[in-house]
Amino acid sequence: MVAPGHDSYLLPQLEITEHSLNDDQKAQLIEVRRKKALVKRELNVLDQELARINQELSKFDSRPTGGSTNEKTLDDVHGRQKFNVDPKKGIESLVSSGILNDTPEDIANLLYKGEKLNKTKIGEYLGENREPNLTVLRRFVERFEFAKMDIVTALRAFLGKFRLPGEAQKIDRMMEEFAVVYCEANSTVYSKSDTCYVLAFSIIMLNTSLHNPSVKDKLTADQFVKMNNGINDGGDLPAQLLINAYHSIKTIPFEIPEEDTQDFTITFYNPDKRGYLVKEGGKRKTWKKRYFVLTDNCLYYFVRESETEPKGIVPLENLMVTECKDRKFTFEIRSEEKFIKAAKTDSGGKMVSGNHENYRIQAANQEEMTSWMDAIRKSISKDPFYTQMQVRKKNAMSKQ
Length: 400
Known about the structure:
The chain is an alpha+beta fold. The protein has 14 helices and 9 strands. It has helices at 23-61, 68-83, 87-96, 104-113, 119-126, 133-142, 151-159, 168-185, 193-211, 221-227, 239-251, 264-267, 366-379, 384-397, and strands spanning 273-280, 287-295, 298-302, 312-315, 319-323, 330-335, 343-345, 351-353, 358-362. The longest helix has 39 residues, at 23-61. The protein starts with 22 loop residues before the first helix and ends with a helix.
């Protein structure tokens, strides 16, 4: 166990007055504070994990020693603990101790039951594009009894077993397996798996639209039906099926397993780039100095460097960066869509969707502008779903 007050000897206490520091020294002080917060959080997590393991082990210490049964139980606990850190090593540990058979069926059964397994790690393992993970994924999905089950109920059961990974390719593989198995079990309703794939994502997007407070324009039942017209081999799915799905999601949102949250201090600990720039407002076209942080494929901006929560967040997905010709040292971030999908803090401190058709940002000089533009371009991600969904929808709407 870690000694009480362990943070005090890891980082020195700084007896200084911030007003006496220059900008570089202030930046270094912020780095120290962020590093200290990160170390403290990691140590707290370690303390909690050690306490939990000790509690588990204490249960077995109080039982009569019976040899192999107790040892097997301890091996099972240790294997699951390893899985929650590294899924591959956890599986190997359970197999080597004889707890688990090294077959896709048995591994899938372990993940399906999910006892004492981290749901984020289950999703991580199922999303890998290699064997035996791919076969395990198929066996995992086949464990569900989808026959005569409506697609919303099926999605609730499926998504409740794990947390979807962040990578688009992994999500695509997992939803593809769901669509194939669900379509096979309900072939009298759905003509092809592409139909199930498109409808499944439409329902997930509907859940976001109806229950995310940042989304102001909520989808109506009629809009949901229209957006899914023609996806069943060129024909329409029964309108009542779509209306039932709509009201099911409207009444009860998906319960997506949550992962450990991280505060913004940790998120911004090691950014790709940061510094002061001048930004044009959205509705009011005034220019104001803001502190920008570029990290994790997002551009954050703050009113001041000392703040810990951003004024605005711009996910750098499917965007373009170009130099503005009408203002010196200024660049523009824009999207092919009407508005950029972004968020900002309103006057009441609540996060709301942004109103920007573009973001116009001015640097201090040409070199700084070029540096920021290059860094943002490198951070922009192209969401494969934008292309994948178009292809899937085209396939679903075309007759065989």
